[in-house]
Amino acid sequence: MKNPYEELMEKIEVSGPMKAHILTRLQALEPEQASPSKATGLRAVRKYVSIAACLAILLAGSTVLTRLWNHAPPDSGPVTGVPQFVQAASAGELSELVGFEVTELQGLPFQADCITYTAYGDQLAEIEYQGEEQTATFRKSVGSEDNFGDYTVYGRTEEIQIRDTAVTLKGDGETYALALWSDGTYAYSLKMTEPLAAEAWRELLSGMVP
Q1: Is 74 left (phi over 0), alpha (psi -120 to 50) or beta?
Q2: For the chain, which residues make up each domain, given as ranges?
Protein backbone atom coordinates (compact mmCIF):
# COMPACT_ATOMS: atom_id res chain seq x y z
CA MET A 1 0.00 0.00 0.00
CA LYS A 2 1.45 3.39 -1.01
CA ASN A 3 1.99 6.04 1.64
CA PRO A 4 0.42 9.54 1.29
CA TYR A 5 3.70 11.06 0.12
CA GLU A 6 4.01 8.60 -2.79
CA GLU A 7 0.36 9.16 -3.76
CA LEU A 8 0.91 12.93 -3.78
CA MET A 9 4.05 12.80 -5.92
CA GLU A 10 2.35 10.53 -8.46
CA LYS A 11 -0.27 13.24 -9.01
CA ILE A 12 2.33 15.92 -9.85
CA GLU A 13 2.96 15.77 -13.57
CA VAL A 14 4.87 17.86 -16.09
CA SER A 15 3.31 17.89 -19.55
CA GLY A 16 5.20 16.86 -22.67
CA PRO A 17 5.26 20.41 -24.15
CA MET A 18 6.53 21.78 -20.84
CA LYS A 19 9.36 19.19 -20.73
CA ALA A 20 10.35 20.04 -24.30
CA HIS A 21 10.34 23.75 -23.52
CA ILE A 22 12.57 23.29 -20.46
CA LEU A 23 15.05 21.10 -22.35
CA THR A 24 15.21 23.58 -25.23
CA ARG A 25 15.92 26.46 -22.85
CA LEU A 26 18.64 24.52 -21.03
CA GLN A 27 20.34 23.49 -24.29
CA ALA A 28 20.31 27.08 -25.46
CA LEU A 29 22.05 28.09 -22.23
CA GLU A 30 24.86 25.52 -22.61
CA PRO A 31 27.17 26.15 -25.62
CA GLU A 32 29.71 23.51 -26.61
CA GLN A 33 32.67 25.54 -25.37
CA ALA A 34 31.49 27.92 -22.68
CA SER A 35 33.85 30.56 -21.32
CA PRO A 36 34.44 30.67 -17.53
CA SER A 37 32.09 33.64 -17.18
CA LYS A 38 29.36 31.90 -19.16
CA ALA A 39 29.84 28.70 -17.16
CA THR A 40 29.44 30.68 -13.94
CA GLY A 41 26.27 32.22 -15.30
CA LEU A 42 24.96 28.81 -16.28
CA ARG A 43 25.51 27.47 -12.78
CA ALA A 44 23.59 30.43 -11.40
CA VAL A 45 20.72 29.79 -13.80
CA ARG A 46 20.62 26.13 -12.83
CA LYS A 47 20.53 27.13 -9.16
CA TYR A 48 17.52 29.37 -9.73
CA VAL A 49 15.85 26.68 -11.83
CA SER A 50 16.35 24.28 -8.91
CA ILE A 51 14.74 26.73 -6.49
CA ALA A 52 11.88 27.39 -8.91
CA ALA A 53 11.30 23.66 -9.30
CA CYS A 54 11.16 23.26 -5.53
CA LEU A 55 8.59 26.04 -5.24
CA ALA A 56 6.59 24.54 -8.10
CA ILE A 57 6.44 21.19 -6.26
CA LEU A 58 5.23 22.92 -3.10
CA LEU A 59 2.52 24.82 -4.99
CA ALA A 60 1.43 21.74 -6.92
CA GLY A 61 1.37 19.69 -3.75
CA SER A 62 -0.79 22.31 -2.04
CA THR A 63 -3.26 22.21 -4.93
CA VAL A 64 -3.43 18.41 -4.92
CA LEU A 65 -3.90 18.28 -1.17
CA THR A 66 -6.75 20.78 -1.33
CA ARG A 67 -8.50 18.69 -3.98
CA LEU A 68 -8.00 15.47 -2.04
CA TRP A 69 -9.38 16.94 1.18
CA ASN A 70 -12.36 18.56 -0.59
CA HIS A 71 -13.29 15.26 -2.27
CA ALA A 72 -13.15 12.92 0.73
CA PRO A 73 -15.61 9.97 0.69
CA PRO A 74 -19.03 11.08 2.00
CA ASP A 75 -19.17 8.20 4.51
CA SER A 76 -15.76 8.93 6.05
CA GLY A 77 -17.43 9.71 9.38
CA PRO A 78 -16.54 12.45 11.86
CA VAL A 79 -13.34 14.34 11.10
CA THR A 80 -10.78 14.10 13.89
CA GLY A 81 -7.30 15.59 14.05
CA VAL A 82 -5.40 17.28 11.23
CA PRO A 83 -4.70 16.14 7.63
CA GLN A 84 -2.25 13.27 7.28
CA PHE A 85 0.62 15.36 6.01
CA VAL A 86 1.45 18.97 6.78
CA GLN A 87 4.35 21.13 5.64
CA ALA A 88 6.34 23.09 8.20
CA ALA A 89 8.60 26.12 7.90
CA SER A 90 11.53 24.80 9.95
CA ALA A 91 12.89 21.78 11.79
CA GLY A 92 11.59 23.27 15.04
CA GLU A 93 8.06 23.60 13.68
CA LEU A 94 8.29 20.09 12.24
CA SER A 95 9.28 18.77 15.68
CA GLU A 96 6.18 20.38 17.20
CA LEU A 97 3.93 18.80 14.57
CA VAL A 98 5.20 15.23 15.07
CA GLY A 99 5.81 15.45 18.81
CA PHE A 100 9.50 14.45 18.81
CA GLU A 101 12.75 16.28 18.11
CA VAL A 102 13.89 16.51 14.49
CA THR A 103 17.20 18.23 13.80
CA GLU A 104 18.78 19.54 10.62
CA LEU A 105 21.40 17.40 8.87
CA GLN A 106 24.97 18.63 8.98
CA GLY A 107 27.84 17.89 6.63
CA LEU A 108 25.92 17.12 3.44
CA PRO A 109 28.28 16.86 0.42
CA PHE A 110 26.40 19.62 -1.43
CA GLN A 111 24.77 22.98 -0.82
CA ALA A 112 21.01 22.83 -0.34
CA ASP A 113 19.19 25.56 -2.27
CA CYS A 114 15.75 24.43 -1.13
CA ILE A 115 14.67 22.62 2.05
CA THR A 116 11.16 21.24 2.64
CA TYR A 117 9.81 19.97 5.96
CA THR A 118 6.86 17.56 6.03
CA ALA A 119 5.01 15.89 8.92
CA TYR A 120 3.09 12.69 8.20
CA GLY A 121 0.67 12.69 11.09
CA ASP A 122 2.49 12.34 14.41
CA GLN A 123 4.51 9.30 13.37
CA LEU A 124 6.97 10.37 10.67
CA ALA A 125 8.98 13.50 9.88
CA GLU A 126 10.76 14.20 6.60
CA ILE A 127 13.29 16.84 5.58
CA GLU A 128 14.28 17.05 1.91
CA TYR A 129 17.38 18.95 0.86
CA GLN A 130 17.48 19.89 -2.82
CA GLY A 131 20.71 21.11 -4.36
CA GLU A 132 21.71 22.15 -7.87
CA GLU A 133 22.18 18.59 -9.10
CA GLN A 134 21.30 16.26 -6.21
CA THR A 135 18.85 15.69 -3.38
CA ALA A 136 19.00 14.17 0.10
CA THR A 137 15.85 12.93 1.85
CA PHE A 138 15.98 12.32 5.61
CA ARG A 139 13.23 10.62 7.60
CA LYS A 140 12.69 9.98 11.31
CA SER A 141 9.75 8.00 12.69
CA VAL A 142 8.47 6.31 15.82
CA GLY A 143 9.54 2.67 16.10
CA SER A 144 12.40 0.67 14.62
CA GLU A 145 11.12 -0.49 11.22
CA ASP A 146 12.35 0.69 7.80
CA ASN A 147 10.51 3.99 7.32
CA PHE A 148 11.60 4.90 3.79
CA GLY A 149 9.47 2.48 1.79
CA ASP A 150 12.04 2.24 -1.02
CA TYR A 151 11.17 -0.77 -3.17
CA THR A 152 14.22 -0.44 -5.42
CA VAL A 153 16.02 -3.76 -5.93
CA TYR A 154 19.58 -2.94 -4.93
CA GLY A 155 22.46 -5.12 -5.99
CA ARG A 156 24.39 -4.78 -2.77
CA THR A 157 23.73 -4.40 0.96
CA GLU A 158 26.40 -3.69 3.57
CA GLU A 159 26.26 -3.12 7.31
CA ILE A 160 28.62 -0.66 8.97
CA GLN A 161 29.03 0.00 12.69
CA ILE A 162 28.99 3.56 14.01
CA ARG A 163 29.66 3.43 17.75
CA ASP A 164 26.87 1.22 19.15
CA THR A 165 24.57 1.45 16.13
CA ALA A 166 24.41 -0.82 13.10
CA VAL A 167 23.68 1.07 9.86
CA THR A 168 22.44 -0.78 6.78
CA LEU A 169 23.60 0.62 3.44
CA LYS A 170 21.91 -0.28 0.15
CA GLY A 171 23.26 0.39 -3.31
CA ASP A 172 25.05 -1.04 -6.31
CA GLY A 173 28.70 -1.70 -7.01
CA GLU A 174 30.94 0.16 -4.57
CA THR A 175 28.50 2.96 -3.71
CA TYR A 176 25.27 3.18 -1.71
CA ALA A 177 22.19 5.38 -2.10
CA LEU A 178 20.24 4.54 1.06
CA ALA A 179 21.14 4.27 4.75
CA LEU A 180 18.84 2.83 7.44
CA TRP A 181 19.32 2.66 11.21
CA SER A 182 17.46 2.76 14.54
CA ASP A 183 18.20 3.73 18.13
CA GLY A 184 15.48 1.44 19.48
CA THR A 185 12.96 4.25 19.94
CA TYR A 186 13.09 5.89 16.52
CA ALA A 187 13.89 4.71 13.01
CA TYR A 188 15.99 6.81 10.64
CA SER A 189 16.69 6.79 6.92
CA LEU A 190 18.67 8.94 4.52
CA LYS A 191 18.59 8.61 0.75
CA MET A 192 21.00 10.36 -1.62
CA THR A 193 20.38 10.76 -5.34
CA GLU A 194 24.18 10.69 -5.77
CA PRO A 195 25.39 7.45 -4.09
CA LEU A 196 28.35 7.47 -1.69
CA ALA A 197 31.07 4.98 -0.81
CA ALA A 198 30.82 3.27 2.58
CA GLU A 199 33.53 5.42 4.15
CA ALA A 200 31.83 8.60 2.94
CA TRP A 201 28.61 7.39 4.57
CA ARG A 202 30.47 6.66 7.79
CA GLU A 203 31.83 10.21 7.87
CA LEU A 204 28.48 11.76 7.00
CA LEU A 205 26.53 9.78 9.62
CA SER A 206 29.08 10.05 12.41
CA GLY A 207 27.36 13.18 13.72
CA MET A 208 23.82 11.78 13.40
CA VAL A 209 24.04 8.25 14.71
CA PRO A 210 24.22 7.82 18.52
Answers
A1: alpha
A2: 4-70, 143-210
